[in-house]
Every structure is written in C-alpha cells, then in structure tokens.
Amino acid sequence: MERTLTVVGRGAAVAVPDTAVVRASVAVSRATVAAAWAEVSDLVMRAVRTMSEHLPAGRYAAHEVSLWPQERTVGEQTVRSFEARRGLVGHCPDLEAAGALIDALVAGLDEGLQIEGVSVEVADPLAALERAREAAWLDAERRAEQLADLADGQLGPVLSVEEVADHGGVALKRMVASAPLVPGETELSAALRITWRLVD
After folding, report:
1. Does 63 share its domain with 137?
2. Contacts 24+ apart (CB under 8 A), 79-84
3. In a 3-state reduction of DSSP, which class is residue 99?
C-alpha cells in the first residue's frame, strides 16, 4: 500500500501599503426633516466637489443615506429634532493624496464632517504573496522532512499542491494613521497543503 504524507505549510511576507481609502460622513441635526435634509445635501455637494478636485472620476462616492428623528429632554420639555447623514468614500492613489483630501474636507466642511477611518492598502500585493507562498513551501517541506523521518521514511515526489484559505489573511503589523499618513507595514500570508509520496 502506498504511503503518503500531507502537510500544511504557512508563510508570510511584508509589504508597505501605498494606497489609502478615506471613509467619512457629513451629518446635521435640525428641527425639521426638510431643514436637516437641505443642509446635509448642501454639505455633501461641497464634499463631492472637494473630492473631485483631489481624486480621479470614479474613485469617490457619496452613499449611505440616513434620516431619523431624535428626542432630548431640556428641563421638563422634550425637544424633537431630525438628523440627516450621508456617507463619503474616497479611494486615494497614494498616501499623500489621502492626507491632502482629509485636510481639504476638514477645511471645507468644518463641524459637519466626521472622519470615520482611513485604511491603507497595497495596490499590487502579487510580489509579496509570491514570497509568502515560497515561505509556505519551505515551511511545509521542513515539517514533512521531520515527519517522514519519524515515520522511518523519506520524501518522494510531490503528488499534489493546494493553496488553502489561511485565516491569518492580511495582518496589519504596524500602521500609524495621522497627518501626514505613515503607512507602516502590512503582512500578507499564504498557506499550502502539499502531499508527498513516502518512500523507504
């Protein structure tokens, strides 16, 4: 009966993020639905105009419309108002553009603006993923050689190779998001399931 040995190897490689996604929103609270909607509509138009000055067409959007009533108590009186909100997203080609976009939005929208987050990404992760796969192969080979020795055998030819989902995914090792943005490092990981034939 043919003996085989299957091992999952894992590897990682570091890459420096070179693009960023800026997520923000504009929101206002007013006494009536019409007033809240009119003001937030004005803010989002200003935001879109600002994004169009910093990003190529198709790389920014205004979305996520929200409008809901609010109540607060002032003394013995209940004050009712309405909050309107629009979400904004800008896909920046580099970190310098992301910093400039944030500065422009803050300057142009003032109190109506909320910066919800900035995520940094690697535009072309293929080279780092290739290095991660090579590291995963070496890791699997080391494990397999030890196990083959424990089984009083040696590694024969490779019978199958499968890339498997690695729940480690893409891990952020170190990132500082400020003005200016400092990308830090992102760790990309890979996992390979490799089967060898065991020979005596």
Report:
1. no
2. 80/31, 81/29, 81/30, 81/31, 81/36, 82/29, 82/30, 82/31, 82/32, 82/33, 82/35, 82/36, 83/27, 83/28, 83/29, 83/36, 84/27, 84/28, 84/30, 84/33, 84/36, 84/37, 84/39, 84/40
3. helix
The one-letter amino acid code at 65 reads V
Q: Which domain holds residue 169?
A: 3-16+124-199
Same-domain pairing of 63 and 148: no
Q: What are phi and psi of 17, to 5 degrees?
A: -60, 140
Q: Do 182 and 111 share a structural domain?
A: no
Retrieve residue 11's tokens: 């590897």
pLDDT digits (tens, 9 = 90+) for 21-73: 999 999 999 999 999 999 999 999 999 999 999 999 999 999 889 999 988 88
* Total count of domains within the chain: 2
Q: What is the DSSP string of 42-71?
A: HHHHHHHHHHHHHS-TTSEEEEEEEEEEEE
